[in-house]
Amino acid sequence: MENRQIFAPEILPSGDFGNRYSFFENDLVCVERWIPKSNYEIPFFITTDGNFTAPTTHGEFADGFPDFISLDSGNLVNLKNVSRAETGEYGGKVYFRGDKHTSVNKLNSAVLTELIEAANKRPDDQRFVIGTCNSKAGLYPAKDIFFLDMWDPKKNYHVPRLYHAGGLYVVALTIRHCQGAFPYLYPATPGHLINVSKVAGFEEHSFGAIVRFKDTDYTCPISKPKHRALKKILRK
């Protein structure tokens, strides 16, 4: 398994956001279904180095990526991928490979050249974003994102949409999508995907079984059929 670095905002034990924006795949213990507010189901990543969640706003992307700047209302642009720009008295546009483009407001058009030059002096980002296209999920290099906007797939539900060199993706927000992105994870329950390589053992009770993991105090439930099947897998 590759030890890829996954872009995800840190969640502290208090429930507040931390100041880290990624975890390494080898540290992943479990993905839980999390409902932080009404109408939002998002993944919660438990790792041996802290807990993280999916980015759901442009602000989280902007905080995590110094090269991503809002050039106009509703967009967030990866300045390192701008191939050319057109600016005028009332603003302008920036273009990317394949002639994709987005707008620039008047204020930012005045400093656009300086912003792009500063971004190009920084090294390429090596993290991956979990995204979906037509319900198929995967991990996509963040450095290949052109720009983002927000998409409303249903009422009062807003999802960052990525205009990427490989296509058009939205941020993955469900357990099913996470299983597509991390196919080696084992479905302990409908709301828990676990990393089998991190399993340290089980606590078996009359009400069911609990999974214990290496290098962490975290535990999670496992259904009886999945428990029986996983014990056979681990004995091999």
Brief summary:
The chain is an alpha+beta fold and 236 residues long. It has helices spanning 58-64, 106-109, 112-120, 175-181, 224-235; strands at residues 5-7, 10-11, 22-24, 28-37, 40-47, 50-53, 68-69, 76-78, 84-88, 91-95, 101-104, 128-133, 136-141, 145-154, 157-164, 167-171, 186-189, 192-194, 199-205, 208-213, 219-222. The two termini are 19 Å apart.
Describe the structure in your own words.
By secondary structure, the protein is α+β, with helices and mostly antiparallel strands. Helices cover 17% and strands 46% of the residues. The protein has five helices and 21 strands. Strands 7-8-14-15-16-12-13 form a seven-stranded antiparallel sheet, with helices on both faces. The chain has a six-stranded antiparallel sheet with strand order 2-6-5-4-18-17. The protein has a three-stranded antiparallel sheet with strand order 9-10-11. The longest helix is centred in the C-terminal third of the chain and has 12 residues, at 224-235. The chain starts with a strand and ends with a helix.
Can you tell me the residue ranges where pLDDT is under 50 for at least 5 consecutive residues?
Answer: none
Amount of beta strand: over 45%
Spell out the helices and strands N to C.
EEEEEEHEEEEEHHEEEEEHEEEEEH
First-residue to last-residue Cα separation: 19 Å
Number of E-state strands: 21
Cα gyration radius (Å):
20 Å
Shape: elongated
What is the share of helical residues? 10-25%
Derived structural class: alpha+beta
Largest sheet: 7 strands, antiparallel
Please state the average pLDDT score: 93
Strand order of the largest sheet: 7-8-14-15-16-12-13
Helical stretch tally: 5
